Amino acid sequence: MQEIIVKKNEAGQRFDKFLFKYFKEAGSGFIFKMLRKKNIVLNDKKASGKEILELDDSVKIYMKDETIDKFRGDASFNVTSSEIDVAYEDDNVIIVNKPAGVLSQKADDTDVSLNEMIISYLIKTGSLTQDDLQTFKPSICNRLDRNTSGLVVAGKTLKGLQVMSQVIKERDVDKYYLTVVDGILDDEIELNGYLLKDSKTNKVSISDTDNGGDKIETSFEPIDFGEGVTILEVKLITGKTHQIRAHLASIGHPIIGDRKYGTEHINKKYPKIKNQLLHAWILKFNDLPEGFEGLSDKRIMADYPNEFNQFMDDVEEF
Q1: 41 burial class (0-12, 13-18, 19+ CB within 10 angstroms)?
Q2: pLDDT in tens, 89-117
Q3: Beta carbons of 159 and 8 less than 8 angstroms apart
Q4: Tens-place pLDDT, residues 200-246
Q5: Is residue 51 within 8 Å of residue 17, measured between CB atoms?
Q6: Under a CB-based contact definition with an 8 Å cutoff, are residues 15 and 47 in contact?
Q7: How far apart are CA 178 and CA 222, in angstroms?
Q8: For 96, 149, 152, 163, which has the most beta carbons within 10 A of its beta carbon?
Q9: Which DSSP string do the residues of 212-237 spell out, in sequence order?
Q10: Distance between CA 132 and CA 154 in Å, rounded?
C-alpha cells in the first residue's frame, strides 16, 4: 500500500484528473476500475473520481509496488544545464527574460524549451522536487515566438498557474514591447484591423476591413531614431499570433530582421542581425487577487538583448 497526502499543488482539482497525472501510463478504464474495487480510496472511503481534492486529503493505493511503478512510468525529469535570466520570482510566480532563438514550449519531444529550463531552475533552487512533478508541472502562461526575446510568465504552483493564466486571458496586465523598424515613424499611432491566420503557412494577414479574422489593436510610440530606422515602444492592446510583426509590415515599416513579414532587401542591409528585433520589454500588472500582492501594480522590465545594443552601435546617430 502507498499513501499520498495532497499538497497545495494537488488541491482544488478533480480526483480523477489527479490520478490520470499520477498514473500517466494507465488508461481511464484501469483508473475507474481501481476506484470501483476500492484499490484506490480517498480519505479511506470509496470514491467516484469526481471529488475535488482538498489540502491534506489522504489517497491510499492498494496495489503491488511493481504495478504502481509500471503505470506511473518514468517519473524523473532531466535537469538541463541552461541558465535563465529571472526578472521576478515569488512563491507562486516566476517571470523570465527569454533569449531569442529559444522555444517557449516544446514543438517536438527532443526540444529543450524555456518551460523545461524553468523546471530545471526550480529543481536546482529547491522550489520543486522530482516527486512534485508526478501530479503538477509548472508551466508558462504566455508564449513568445522563437525569435522574439523578453518576458515570459510561469506558474510555480497550481494557484500561480491558474491566476496568471486568467490575468493574461482577461488582459489585466499591460504588455509593452521594444522593436526597431525600417523607416521613420514620427508620431504615436494606434492601429486597428482584422487578423486572419493561415494554419498551413503559419502566417497571418492584416486587413482594415472585416476579413473573418480576429479584431486587433496595437499602439506604437517612437522613442528614438537612427539612419532610416525607428525604435518603437509597442503597447499590445490585443494579443494575437504575430500581431505586432504583421501590423507593422502592413503599414510599410517591417521589423528589422523579420524573415517572415519583413523584406529581403531590407534585412540584407543588416547582415549581423540574426533574429527579429522584437523584445517583450515591460509587464505592468493591475489589480491581482489576494496572495499576489507582490505583483499588484508592479512594473517588471527585461533588459534588452545584446543584439539591440550592437545594432544601435552600428547604425548612425544612436
Answers
A1: middle
A2: 999 999 999 999 899 988 776 677 899 99
A3: yes
A4: 888 999 998 888 889 999 999 999 888 889 999 999 999 888 999 99
A5: no
A6: yes
A7: 10
A8: 149
A9: SSEEEEEEEEEEEEETTEEEEEEEES
A10: 16
